[in-house]
Amino acid sequence: MKGVVLSGGEGTRLRPITHTRAKQLVPVANKPVLFYGLECLKACGITDVGIVVGGTKDEIKRAVSDGSAFGLKVTYVEQEAPLGIGHAVKICRDFVKDEPFVVYLGDNLLLEGMEEALAQFRRERPHCQVLLARVPDPNRFGVATVAKGQVVKLVEKPKEPESDLALTGVYIFDKSFFVAAEEIKPSARGELEITDAIQWLVDNGFRVGFRVVDGWWKDTGRLEDLLEANRLILATLSERIEGEVSETSRIDFRVVIEAGARVVNSSIRGPALIGRDSLVADSYVGPFTSIGNNCRLENCEVEHSIIMDGSMIKNVRGRITDSLLGENCYLDRLQQKPRVYRFMLGDNSQVEVI
């Protein structure tokens, strides 16, 4: 079985961060989202992986290279334009050949992985199997209606959903997908929709199975979803202190401090992660915060946030929360101090708070 990972999306909902990086490379718990998907495939024994890339192909290729760091053999498939998920999978025909394959959206996270779903696919042998998750807001997603153990209807972002079962962005197909892909037409937005391809299979007598995931699933396409994913991943970490912690500092509840990091006269309340060679001085880092590598925090308070590599925050006495700072940002305070700051800053930004 082969893997197809889609990494060509533009990430418009995460701008300005995605003006300077692929959305799949935004870190969650100090690791690019894309890497979790690659590790998930490897954990299932899938080592031959095609990555579909678009305008950010150079970044993706630099980050993943030939895949050997993940124990994978990676082939890159270039999509000339963002013509839809269905199109992105369709152009992998030469890579997949006649083998069954997994499609994994590169900006998604699954807690439970795919082992059980793959076992079910091998046992039941449907033509397609979709992974579903129950969500409170199904109108944001592709939604499945199921009956008698099969999918009977799929609708993309319905105004009035018939169920709360959302497509998670993980699919398993046999070669019949490519038959469907040749039959469907572009949607009103000019894209080949993967939901249309699966619906074609349903309508033409192909068997489409499903599995409802037991653990959490996150589509990290929005800031609030990234922060939630960061929270969920941090909550799974075990405490590990490899850096230096001064006697005047306090560390509480599942904190990871990586090698070369220093915590001086500060309080870190986990779950939290302090990256390599970072400094936290005279500061508070609260729950569900990941601080990247080579960061510097002085005289500030941060919680429920993602701070990416090389950024500096100093003298901001109001608490920063629910925020995402890109790489090499500089955030300082001039005079006044609002109680809470909320930021989403692109790489190399500089902000002076008044």
Task: List the main descriptive attributes of the protein structure presented here.
34% strand, single chain, alpha/beta, 7-stranded parallel beta sheet, 354 residues
Which regions contain 5 or more consecutive residues with pLDDT less than 50? none
The overall strand count is 33
Beta content comes to 25-35%
Order of strands, main sheet, comes to 5-4-1-6-11-8-12
Question: Level of helix content?
Answer: 10-25%
Structural class: alpha/beta
Fold and architecture overview:
There is one protein chain. With 354 residues, this protein is of the alpha/beta class. The protein is 19% helix and 34% strand. The chain is built from eight helices and 33 strands. The strands form seven sheets. It has a seven-stranded mixed beta sheet with strand order 5-4-1-6-11-8-12. The radius of gyration is 22 Å and the shape is elongated. The protein starts with a strand and ends with a strand. The mean pLDDT is 88.
Question: How is this structure best summarized?
Answer:
Helix 6 crosses helix 7.
Strand and helix layout:
Layout: E1 2-7, E2 27-28, E3 31-32, H1 33-43, E4 48-53, H2 57-64, E5 73-78, H3 85-90, H4 93-96, E6 101-105, E7 108-110, H5 115-124, E8 128-134, E9 142-147, E10 150-156, E11 165-173, H6 176-183, H7 194-203, E12 208-212, E13 217-219, H8 223-234, E14 240-241, E15 244-245, E16 250-252, E17 255-257, E18 262-264, E19 267-269, E20 272-274, E21 279-281, E22 284-285, E23 289-291, E24 296-298, E25 301-303, E26 306-307, E27 312-314, E28 319-321, E29 324-325, E30 330-333, E31 340-341, E32 344-345, E33 350-353
Parallel strand pairs: 1-4, 1-6, 4-5, 8-12, 14-17, 15-18, 16-19, 17-20, 18-21, 19-22, 20-23, 21-24, 22-25, 23-26, 24-27, 25-28, 26-29, 27-30, 28-31, 29-32, 30-33
Antiparallel strand pairs: 2-3, 6-11, 7-13, 8-11, 9-10
